[in-house]
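Reference record:
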Amino acid sequence: MPADDRHGAQARRPARDTRKPGMSTNLKVTLGILAVALLGVIGLAVVNRDSGTTPVVASDTLVRADSHRLSTAPDGRVTIVEFLDFECESCLAAYPGVEKLRAEYGDRITYVVRYFPIPSHPNAFNAAHAAEAAARQGKFEAMYKKLFDNATVWGHKEEPQVAVFEGYAREMGLDLARYRADVAGAEVAARVKADAADGAALGVQGTPTFFVNGVRYDGLPTYDDLKAVVEKSLSS
């Protein structure tokens, strides 16, 4: 974060102040130390700005114990985390490339999906709740695919698409009574909000947002560009 280097003007001493002018030796030493420290902080900020590096984020915020993993690499060399919104057009555009990447690399990479529903999307939260309710019956990936594969059918409709999502749950053979209870329950809502809160804490502002090995990926969310980052990580 940019340092605030504004300084207030030095106040004049009152005329009635009878102390001798000048600073004490201790004060001079203290100010000197502070000046050196400030220069160091400014220098570090300039280096980071000029190098264009993105800091590694806290792993315990990026991937939680209950985060949904579509694949897991035994060696842990490459971990991709995607914060997504099932109703996001950019996420839908990235989806085929992501699926191609996952099919190609399989369990050579760990692929983690986190919820980040955009409030302006009318069914973003409903879709995330449907995915989380399905996850509680071991069907997260199946619902993840159903939602994206049919996004042009249900997406950007002003009316709630709860019945449509329940139809997907039925097609997947879920226990509908349990699904209905979960999708409308406080635990599922809290789980989705927790993912979104982690995303906000990590600086996520839109979707899709990817992190590769703890570093935010700012390139294009295409198969070719993501593949290049994966290959670089695997070879390092």
Summary: The first strand starts at residue 68 and ends at 71. Residues 21-53 form one domain. The CA atoms of residues 82 and 210 lie 5 Å apart. The radius of gyration is 25 Å.
